[in-house]
Design goal:
A hairpin with a 2-residue loop joins strand 5 and strand 6. Helices cover about 0% and strands about 55% of the residues. The strands form five sheets. It has a five-stranded mixed beta sheet, with no helix packed on it. By secondary structure, the chain is mainly beta. It is built from no helices and 19 strands.
């Protein structure tokens, strides 16, 4: 009997040639997703036989078959695209009580997001983040990133041009990176075309 393999976009299947198998025999396949993708489903003659997994073995073959591996990716969707905070510097002014803000990250894809991690770059001194994101994030599940401003504004803030925001980057093996811009503003910063003065 013949077993004809195929793969969807964003990955490959091996072996990828038609196999001739004796009646009652077996044939194994390995799916390899492209970077940033994962194995979604295995389809036998168009019907779902396995969800996920890099390997599938067809056993006790007594008819011609087709086998297909499909690929997908998780989608890490942040609750905001950018975040603007006030500095927390009550020594300079009692009104400068910048509060922590949270960003919710939700896996809106159909696959789990494996090895989720969070990193920051370009934060001003004293600004910190904490995260509940890590490990695997199942579809429709969420985690939180909390950004707490310090007493220092974003670099270049009072110099005249609009400051360049820092970033929170949420990554996974199976999803494109999500990047959230973070500005920390103090008196004299340029924001939305004007100077912050109160």
């Amino acid at each position: 009997y013949t077993v004809t393999p195929s793969s969807g976009a964003n990955g490959s299947i091996a072996p990828n040639v038609v196999a001739l198998v004796n009646s009652g025999g077996s044939q194994g396949y390995t799916a390899t997703p492209d970077s940033g993708y994962a194995v979604n489903q295995w389809l036998l003659d168009g019907s779902l036989v396995q969800t996920g997994g890099a390997v599938y073995t067809l056993v006790n073959i007594t008819a011609n078959h087709t086998i297909e591996a499909t690929f997908g990716q998780a989608t890490l969707t942040p609750s905001v695209g950018s975040l603007t905070l006030a500095v927390n510097d009550t020594a300079l002014d009692a009104a400068l009580t910048g509060s922590a803000r949270q960003i919710t990250i939700t896996n809106t894809g159909t696959l789990p997001a494996a090895n989720v991690s969070v990193a920051s770059s370009g934060f001003p001194a004293g600004t910190l983040f904490t995260s509940t994101c890590g490990g695997t994030l199942a579809p429709a599940s969420s985690c939180m990133v909390t950004v707490t401003p310090g007493a220092t504004a974003t670099s270049g803030c009072p110099a005249g041009p609009a400051p360049t925001p820092g970033a929170v980057t949420v990554s996974s093996d199976d999803a494109p990176d999500s990047v959230i811009g973070v500005l920390v503003l103090g008196y004299g910063c340029v924001y939305q075309g004007g100077y912050v003065y109160s």
